[in-house]
C-alpha cells in the first residue's frame, strides 16, 4: 500500500509496475491463445475429411478430386525429403560462412559479405522461386542432373530423365533460401562469444582451429541449434519457392529428379479450385498436418536443447 503522504506523481509511477506486469502477461497470453485458436480452427474446418478418411489420410498417396479420394502421404513425403536436402546443405555451409566472417575475414570483407547475407535473407521467397524456375532449373537439367546420372546413376535417387524441376531442385532452392537466414543467426551468435574467453585460449597456446572448435562452437551451440531449427521451420512451411520448381505431382518416386509436391505447394496450387466441401476439408487437413509436424519439430528441438544443457552441466 502506498504511504499516506506520498505525492501523486510518485504514486502514479509506483502503479506502473503492476500495469506493466499485466500488460506483458496479456501479450504473452495472446500468443498462446492464437496458437490454440489456429489449431482449433484447423481441426474444425477439416472435420469432414477426418471423419471420412480417418488415420488412412496419412497413409494414402491417392489424390483424386474427381472421385473424392484424398491422402496426404505424397505431400508429407515431399515436404520431409525436400527439407532434409535443404538442411543437409544449408547448416554446414552456414556454419562455415559464419565462422569465416567472425574468425578469419578482415573487417571490411566481413561487413560486405555480412550485408549481402542480410539482403539475401530479406528477399521474398517468390523471387527465389522465379529464379529457380528460369535460371536454376535449366542449369540442373543441362549440367548437374546429367553429371549426377553419369557418376551415381546406379542409385535409384539419381535415375530418370533430367527435367530440371523436381525434388532435388526444390531441396537446393530451399537450401539457398534458408542459408542466409541461418548464417546471419550463427554469425551474431559467434560474435557474442566473450573475447576474454577466446584470448585465454590463445594465451595457453591454442591454435585458431582449436579456439574455433573448443570455444566458439561450444559457446554458441544453443544459438546454432536454435538458428538451425528456425531455418527448418521455414523450410517446412515454404510455399512459393517450392511451388515453382518441385513439379507438383502427387506421386511418390525414389528418384530425386522426379517431380513431386509438398504440403505447402499443394495448398498454394489447389486451394482456389476446391469448391467441393470434402476437397476443401482435405486441403485444410493437410494444413493441420503441417501445423502438427511443425509443433513436433519444435518440441523435439526443445527436448534436445534441454538434454544438451544437462549433459554440459548447464554450460550451454
From TrEMBL:
PROSITE patterns: ABC_TM1
Localization per Swiss-Prot or TrEMBL: Cell membrane
UniProt-recorded Gene Ontology molecular function terms: phosphate transmembrane transporter activity
Keyword check for Transport: yes
Keyword Transmembrane helix: yes
Keywords tagged on the record: Cell membrane, Membrane, Phosphate transport, Transmembrane, Transmembrane helix, Transport
CDD domains, sorted: TM_PBP2 (cd06261)
Signal sequence annotation: none
Homology family: Belongs to the binding-protein-dependent transport system permease family. CysTW subfamily.
Protein name (Swiss-Prot/TrEMBL): Phosphate transport system permease protein
Lineage: Bacteria, Pseudomonadati, Candidatus Hydrogenedentota, Candidatus Abyssobacteria
Amino acid at each position: 500500500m502506498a504511504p499516506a503522504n506520498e505525492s501523486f506523481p510518485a504514486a502514479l509511477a509506483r502503479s506502473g509496475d503492476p500495469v506493466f506486469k499485466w500488460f506483458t502477461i496479456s501479450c504473452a497470453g495472446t500468443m498462446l491463445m492464437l496458437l490454440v485458436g489456429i489449431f482449433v480452427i484447423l481441426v474444425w474446418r477439416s472435420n469432414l475429411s477426418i471423419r471420412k478418411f480417418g488415420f488412412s489420410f496419412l497413409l494414402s498417396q491417392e489424390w483424386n478430386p474427381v472421385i473424392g479420394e484424398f491422402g496426404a502421404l505424397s505431400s508429407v513425403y515431399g515436404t520431409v525429403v525436400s527439407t532434409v536436402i535443404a538442411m543437409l546443405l544449408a547448416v554446414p555451409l552456414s556454419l562455415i560462412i559464419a565462422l569465416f566472417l567472425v574468425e578469419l575475414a578482415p573487417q571490411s570483407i566481413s561487413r560486405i559479405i555480412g550485408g549481402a547475407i542480410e539482403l539475401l535473407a530479406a528477399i521474398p521467397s517468390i523471387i527465389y522461386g522465379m529464379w529457380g524456375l528460369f535460371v536454376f532449373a535449366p542449369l540442373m537439367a543441362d549440367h548437374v542432373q546429367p553429371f549426377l546420372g553419369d557418376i551415381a546413376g546406379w542409385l535409384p535417387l539419381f535415375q530418370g530423365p533430367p527435367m530440371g524441376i523436381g525434388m532435388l531442385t526444390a531441396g537446393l532452392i530451399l537450401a539457398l533460401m534458408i542459408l542466409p537466414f541461418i548464417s546471419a543467426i550463427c554469425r551474431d551468435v559467434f560474435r557474442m562469444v566473450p573475447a576474454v574467453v577466446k584470448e585465454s585460449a590463445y594465451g595457453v597456446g591454442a591454435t585458431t582451429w582449436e579456439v574455433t572448435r573448443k570455444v566458439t562452437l561450444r559457446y554458441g551451440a544453443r544459438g546454432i541449434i536454435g538458428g538451425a531449427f528456425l531455418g527448418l521451420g521455414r523450410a517446412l512451411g515454404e510455399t512459393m519457392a517450392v511451388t515453382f520448381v518441385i513439379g507438383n505431382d502427387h506421386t511418390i518416386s525414389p528418384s530425386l529428379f522426379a517431380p513431386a509436391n509438398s504440403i505447402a505447394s499443394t495448398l498454394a496450387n489447389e486451394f482456389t479450385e476446391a469448391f467441393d466441401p470434402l476437397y476443401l476439408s482435405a486441403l485444410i487437413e493437410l494444413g493441420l498436418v503441417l501445423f502438427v509436424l511443425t509443433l513436433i519439430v519444435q518440441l523435439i528441438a526443445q527436448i534436445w536443447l534441454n538434454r544438451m544443457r544437462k549433459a554440459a552441466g548447464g554450460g550451454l
